Amino acid sequence: MYANVRGTRLYFDVDGMGLVPVGESMEPRPPLFLLHGGPGGDHSSFKTSVNSLADVSQLIYLDHRGSGRSAPAQAEDCTLDENIQDLEAVRSYLGLEQIAVLGSSYGGMVAQGYAIRYPEHIERLILVATAPSFRFLEEARRIVQTRGTPDQVRVCEMLWSAGFTSQEQLYEYYKTMGPMYSTAFDADKFEAGWHRGIRNFAQLNSGFGGFLREFDYTDQLRQIGCPTLVLTGALDWICPPSQSRLIADQIPDVRLEVFADSAHSIAQDEPDKFMTIVRAFLHERVA
């Protein structure tokens, strides 16, 4: 499905009922927007990791502007600010008054910005393996230098310099870094996921070479008034747990969960614990 909003065409998909028959009544199931990582990723990995949440929420998968199956766009127009405004436009397009948002990695940065800018439209916030400011970059570089193999250090230079020039380089980066992104990294599953997904290296360059070096929500996070769940992997290298603790220190109504055996891909590394915690958090709002 597509929403024509703000001069572009955004892909979204819906999983689960908004109204559920219970006895003689129709009970509402709250909408949960799922915001993917990147910049330049897509929603596809959510469909194998969090799709079972459709039993407590109506899931709305969204590909960011110019990403995945959304309409192509110039990379310089696919900014954090644009993604925040696009989310608000799709919420309005669907006629939803209030929403829950789960943002993972870069999607968590979009989710923070949305909760700060549009507090009247967000009921519940889940931030997974993300960071509140540009400062995560310096910490991630130190971790790679300390923990990474020579090949991992090498491919990360393409990320830090915003120097990807082909899909082949992007593939090499993600495959080489796979064991650092996930403690449960499986080469065969990686190949399947890579072919299912659609990735945009120009957007990744634009983010890591531009706006991700500048954004900073740290002092605004205390404005977030909705219940918030912050999840972090103890072994995460790109959005280290210290970044999630900074978020949790600022938001008033917050719960922080550290996954001891997870890296960046928490839902893949500790799926049962991840689903139990997220499902319980979402169910609290309708209990």
Describe the structure in your own words.
The chain is an alpha/beta fold and 287 residues long. It has a single domain, classed as Rossmann fold (3-Layer(aba) Sandwich), CATH 3.40.50. The protein is built from 10 helices and 10 strands. It is globular. The mean pLDDT is 97.
Principal-axes geometry comes out as globular
Number of helices: 10
Low-pLDDT stretches: none
Largest sheet: 8 strands, mixed
Got a strand count?
10
CATH class term: Alpha Beta
Instruction: State the order of secondary-structure elements, H for helix, E for strand.
Output: EEEEEEHEHEHHHHHEHEHH
CATH topology: Rossmann fold
The number of distinct structural domains comes to 1
Strand percentage lies at 15-25%
Structural class by SSE content:
alpha/beta
Rg result? 18 Å
Name the helicity range: 25-40%
Spatial sequence of strands, sheet with the most strands: 1-2-6-5-7-8-9-10
Specify the CATH homologous superfamily: Alpha/Beta hydrolase fold, catalytic domain
Let me know the average pLDDT. Answer: 97
- How far the N terminus sits from the C terminus, by CA atoms, comes to 31 Å
